[in-house]
Amino acid sequence: MAATKKKTAKKSATKTAAKTAEAKSFIDKPINQQLSKDEKIELYSMIVGIRRFEERSLRAYNQGKIGGFLHLYIGQEAVAAGIVSLMEENDHIITAYRDHGHALAVGMSMNECMAEMYGKHTGCSKGKGGSMHFFAPDKNFWGGHGIVAGQTPLGAGLAFALKYKKIKGCAVCFLGDGAVNQGVFMETLNLVSLWDIPVVFVIENNGYSMGTSLKRSSAEENLAHRADGFDIAWEVCEGHDVFEVREVANRAMTRAREEHKPFLLEIRTYRYRGHSVADANHEKYRTKEEIEEYKKNKDPINVVKQHLLQDGTLTEDLAKQIDKEKKEEAEASTRFADDSPVAPREEIQTDVYWEVDNDTEGKLKGTYFFNDV
Amino acid sequence: MPLITYREAIKQALAEEIERDENVVVMGEEVAQYNGAYKVTEGLWEKYGDDRLIDTPISEAAFSGLAIGAAALGIRPVVELMFMSFSYVAIDQLFNNASFCRYMSGGLMNIPIVVRGPANGGTNVGATHSHTPENMIANHPGLKVVCPSNAYDAKGLMKTAIRDNDPVFVMENTLLYGEKWEVPEEEYTIELGVANILKEGTDVTIVSHGRCAIISLNAAKILEEKHGISAEVVDLRSIRPLDEETILKSVRKTNRAVLVEENKPFCGVDAQISHMIQYRAFDYLDAPIHRVSAIDAPQVYAKELENWQIPNEERIIASVLKCCG
Fold first, then answer.
1. Bridge-partner residues for A92, per DSSP?
2. A142 CB within 8 Å of a chain B CB
3. What burial class does residue B302 get, using C-beta atoms within 10 Å of its C-beta: 0-12 exposed, 13-18 middle, 19+ buried?
4. Least CB–CB distance from B165: residue in A165, A355, A365
5. B167 and B249: one domain?
6. Distance of residue B90 Cα from the nearest chain A Cα, in angstroms
7. Would you call A90 exposed, middle or buried from its count of C-beta atoms within 10 A (0-12, 13-18, 19+)?
8. In angstroms, rounded to a whole number, what is the distance separating the alpha carbons of residues A105 and A122?
9. Are residues B64 and B140 in the same domain?
10. Mutate which: B21, B23, B73, B88, vs A, most A CBs within 10 A
């Protein structure tokens, strides 16, 4: 087994150089060729939808409608859209706090997501979670987690449950490049390799852990190489082309499902905005030119759009129409959120204990909540 | 009724629940092939195999978090921490993820895990292995915590904890593992949130939990024999949920309360109970509420000093005499 892993590793290291020439061909890989025209348009719509939703949420934040933190995914959309499009019935995903893209990709509505950020009762968590804590277990999406790397053993646990129940599937656990330096992630890598757990860790490497560049935070900048220390197979790919993401992630997810083996996938991507919206000085730790360069050459929307115009899936008119629809959907979600009520105060103390919420006959004993009454 | 040890009672609970529900798994350091650091799981791996008894590396944060993720998909992990002191290296997993996932998902998730292990001092091992963090756990809405003081309670509460659909911490005690109590052969469970009156009395109420309840009972017997004071001893069993009514009923009868716990005093469980009593039974009190806690310093190593640091009969008796004086 170790030999196979070595081979995979070597392949990955030499691959980067050939990337540029190969880039155009990702759409022609079997996993992408099997997409119908509608499915390709759906992928495009998803990427556009995430962008328009977040742009609108930024405006809402600036208007004071959204509180707390707002970690935007703008620039990284192809990663969530691509990987979620590969999910099978028994696959599960979990991510960190930059979770809007993943939530929309699994099919959560803009309305419930926007309303959650507005702190409204109609939000996906009834206004109890906020921007960083979106959940949709019915869509195999397990959050939305606020503490860096805190979700990584949970992702392993989802995959552990699949293996224990002999269900063919995998868990995909997303994390950022900052999360690789948390101890719990390294503990988890050891555990999943030791126990052959079908989890794919996807490092969405956007180059900055908050305001600290990769160079200033990680001793080994090739983050995927850490997998070698745990005898885990790994690959590296670019995150701006959704078809590349699908091609590479498909290998990782298939391996996890078929062989019950973990995988570490490093996807190099970029966020246009700050770590969060509060990070107004993000141009202090990187240059305007760097951001513009990415927008110009590697924008996930432009890249997928060019592919689909070239292969005849998309026309400029259709692209414009999709864009308009997504803008309208995002706009409508703010109206929905605005018009929705805040949860009644009594609900501060619901959803704390399952047993209390489901104690319809009032049989539970003892005091669960301790305010003076 | 057979006399069995506290250790054996917990093992019986684990074995019965493993047999009852195919989703129950026990994981932790040395729980399987080594037979448990304190032999609580002795023989279980041999009987139930690798799938149900899982040895983990020394990675409390990772295996606690893994258990939480697995619980979200219907597994019922019983996580053994060799010492509850080791929960401190898994705090983000246990105190953020286990307790808050349900809330932050607006009730869409629940995490049916049990975290169990010894939480006690008095073992001459110094400050890093002597924590009694039931107060910290109870400070996190979403978590539940029980502290069985005897074998009967340990078995009954453990079985309930495993069947509970929320995260439950079961605080055991290494000094009790070898002690024996009567435990029926037929199956039983004990509800969470129900205190147990270990001894009835009329002059003062001693409220306690875990091994301190046993020490309090010893002290109550001496108080009765040597000082003519009739103390009622309430063993909380469950900290959250808390049986406030049994405490109040007793205090309204005796008009005096002495609270005994092994934890350090500041923000201890008894700080909350003291507030509750004065708030809800103020007019019934004939004396200030007294507390006996661990002497407020990191756990001392020297055996003679530690035996004085944690509550003992002598300190409890002195406090009761002061309260009744």
1. A171
2. yes
3. exposed
4. A355
5. no
6. 9
7. middle
8. 19
9. yes
10. B73
B138-156 as b/e, with b when 16 or more CB fall inside 10 Å? bbbbbbbbbbbbbbbbbbb
* Predicted-complex ipTM score: 0.97
CA distance B290 to B270: 10
Distances in Å between the Cα of A78 and the Cα atoms of A105, A251, B64, B201 are: 10, 17, 32, 71
The per-residue pLDDT for range A13-62, each reduced to its tens digit, is 444 445 444 555 899 999 999 999 999 999 999 999 999 999 999 999 99
Size of interface A-B (CB pairs under 8 A): 183
Domain boundary among B182, B206, B239: B182
Nearby residues of A9 by Cβ (< 8 Å), 6 or more positions away: A227, A228, A233, A234
Taking 50 as the pLDDT cut, the residues of chain A under it are 1-17, 19-21
In a domain, B187, yes or no: no
Q: What is the DSSP letter of B299?
A: P
A191 touches chain B (CB under 8 A): yes
Whether A250 is in a domain gets the answer: yes
Number of structural domains (chain A) is 1
CATH of the domain at A225: 3.40.50.970
Minimum distance, in Å, between the CA of residue B171 and any CA atom of chain A = 18
Contacts of B277 in chain A (CB under 8 A): none
- The domain of B76 spans 3-182
